[in-house]
Each structure stands twice: as structure tokens, then as C-alpha cells.
Amino acid sequence: MAVDYQLKGQAAIVTGSTSGIGQAMARALARQGVDVVLNGFGEAAAIESDRAALEAETGVRVRYHSADMFKPEQIAELVAFAQAEFGRLDILVNNAGIQHVAPVEDFPPAKWDAIIAINLSSVFHATQAAVPIMKAQGRGRIVNLASAHGLVASPFKSAYVAAKHGVVGFTKSVALELARTDITVNAICPGYVKTPLVEAQITDQAKARNMPVDRVLEDVILAAQPNKRFVEYDHLAGLLLYLVSDMGGSTTGAALSVDGGWTAA
């Protein structure tokens, strides 16, 4: 039975939403009647096909903006675009992320800078642009996609772990700043989801550890998750919908784990 989260008529931005978790989040919001701005990289025709299909399926307005999360001025343009298109901005989902796996002594400085910029700094820039709009409206919901790696660490992922710990800290700080408004700020901390990013990690981890791919999957990737299953997109979308609805109005500053028990120990 479908749940009505009473979000119809609201407007959202989901960064990094042309594939993976972000795409699932955008679809979940659109299916609840939320107008959505998609963002991310990919082949232009495929992005347009997905955008048009989602709009046709849901009847909401679905737009696309190609802002590069490495570039603060383009992030500001993305937020301004959403407000111009929809006349409001109720929901910001900061999801865009990249990964690189390597020992710290071999970690390319350019990869470090890109991961910090896209996984952490973009969250700041988008939030900074969105908060004045939400304050003027008297309500808003900001959801940051962190990671289990925002709570615990793994080897060979120094930049990603540093960035995601930063996302969790940023989430808490801004939630406190906005605690007396009706703007909530929360982080979702997924375990492993079988996204294109994770698929690439399997290969990278095999190289970094000099292990066969099948062993990496069993002994490295899912070793951290006691239930030994990838997190499903629907599990993350369900938490998102709760957080952005009125039911989630008292949840703010939280880092919520969806990780099959990974961070329970």
C-alpha cells in the first residue's frame, strides 16, 4: 500500500541524480508529487530520456541542470534555477559524490581535492544558497547523503572518509543554527548500495589489495555489513520521505544509519 507523505506541490533539488542513489531519491520525491530538479553527469540524450519519462510517469515538473559540484558558482546557479522554475525550494538533497581508493602515500592530490570539493564543499555551497529561500518560506528540509564512512573508517579511503565525516559534522552544526526555524537538516548514512560508484570500488579495491574481485566482494565490501546484503534503494528513499515530511519535523541534526548493522558494533 502506497503511503501519502503529503508533499504534493513542493519543490526539490537532488544533486547527483542522474544515476544511483540520487536517481532513486528523485524518483521517490516525484512519485509523491514533488517538482524536482535533476543534476549530474551523463550522456545528454539518456539524461533527457530519463527526465521526460519521469515527468510523464508522475505528472510533476522535472527539470535538469548540469551544475558541476566542483564549481561553487554553478551550485549557486542550480539553486537559483530551481527557485526560478518552481517559485520555491522546499527540499534539498545533497547526494553528489565521487570516490577513489588508494593507500595514503599513493593518493593523488588532485583526487583528494576533487573528493573534498564534490563530497563535502558542495554540501556547504548548496546549503548556503538554499537556506535563505527556505527561511523566507518558513519551512525547509535539507538531507545530506553521508555514508557509514561518515561514522567509521576503512583503509585506502582517506579522502572519502574525511569528507563524509565532514558532512556529518556540517549537518549537526547547521541543524543547531536552524533549530528554532522549521528547517531541518539531517544526514543519511548508507552502507553499501550496489551503485555504479560501488561497482567501480570493487575493481579499485581488488587492485589496492591485490585480491580477486570475488574475494573483495565477500571479504571486503560486504564484510562490514552483518546482514551480508546490499542496501536497497527503497530503504533509503523511505527514510528520505519520512525526513522531508511533516512526520520528520522533530528529527534534525541526526546521522541516521541504513547499513545492515555495520555501525552497530
From TrEMBL:
EC number in record: 1.1.1.175
GO biological process: monocarboxylic acid metabolic process
Top-rank taxon: Bacteria
PROSITE patterns: ADH_SHORT
MF terms in GO: 3-hydroxybutyrate dehydrogenase activity; D-xylose 1-dehydrogenase (NAD+) activity
Family the UniProt entry places it in: Belongs to the short-chain dehydrogenases/reductases (SDR) family.
Protein name: D-xylose 1-dehydrogenase
Gene source species: Phenylobacterium deserti
Upper lineage: Bacteria, Pseudomonadati, Pseudomonadota, Alphaproteobacteria, Caulobacterales
